[in-house]
Specification:
By secondary structure, the protein is an alpha+beta fold. 17% of the residues lie in helices and 34% in strands. A hairpin with a 7-residue loop joins strand 8 and strand 9.
């Protein structure tokens, strides 16, 4: 977590154990479960939104995804993530979870999270867990990068591996994040979760 503390972001390889990652990927919900995001800056499909530890509809039908959501919403994960983000004195918890699929022509325009401009006290962290993607062209396969600008011209970091990896960044920081219009052979499956200090929920 040194990079996270010093730079405001970090990237983790082999985020889940092999069995857990393989199970989530093998039994990933089909496309009919997802709906295209209606926001102009976010052109990709979302499903299974959990807010404040709620259980999304239809998650019952997807055993391995459900197990992962339950883990993220557990007190055990609160302890793990609190320790990772700076010790038990800073208590964090998972506030929201969402699953997404992205394919050709989808994009995420470079932006700062709306949360960054709010007056929340304490840092808020976004975890983008890449389950699968085209590693031959990660930049054009939904590889969310960190940028100094909102035109993809000054990249700070663009992931090269979209299989069982996780980008973590401080949502209250000043950099931008997003991914370019995806190529025809681009594809991505991801789970995004937001981690809040317990004191502001």
């Amino acid at each position: 977590s040194y990079l996270l503390k010093e730079k405001g972001w970090c990237f983790i390889e082999d985020f889940l154990d092999h069995t857990s990652h393989t199970s989530i990927l093998k039994y990933w919900p089909n496309k009919n479960n997802f709906k295209l995001n209606s926001k102009v800056i976010k052109n990709f499909s979302m499903a299974f939104m959990s807010i404040n530890k709620s259980c999304p509809k239809n998650l019952e039908n997807h055993k391995y995804l459900k197990h992962f959501y339950e883990f993220l919403n557990s007190s055990n994960f609160d302890l793990i993530v609190s320790e990772f983000l700076g010790g038990v004195s800073n208590e964090f918890t998972c506030y929201s979870i969402g699953s997404s699929i992205s394919e050709k022509k989808n994009y995420l325009a470079p932006h700062r999270d709306g949360i960054a401009s709010s007056k929340n006290k304490g840092k808020i962290f976004n975890f983008i867990y890449f389950i699968d993607g085209n590693n031959k062209i990660p930049e054009f396969s939904g590889g969310t990068g960190i940028y100094e600008d909102n035109n993809f011209e000054r990249p700070i970091f663009i992931p090269k591996n979209l299989k069982n990896t996780c980008l973590i960044y401080d949502s209250t920081d000043r950099f931008y994040h997003g991914y370019n219009i995806m190529a025809r052979e681009g594809y991505r499956k991801a789970i995004t979760f937001q981690i809040f200090p317990k004191k502001i929920i």
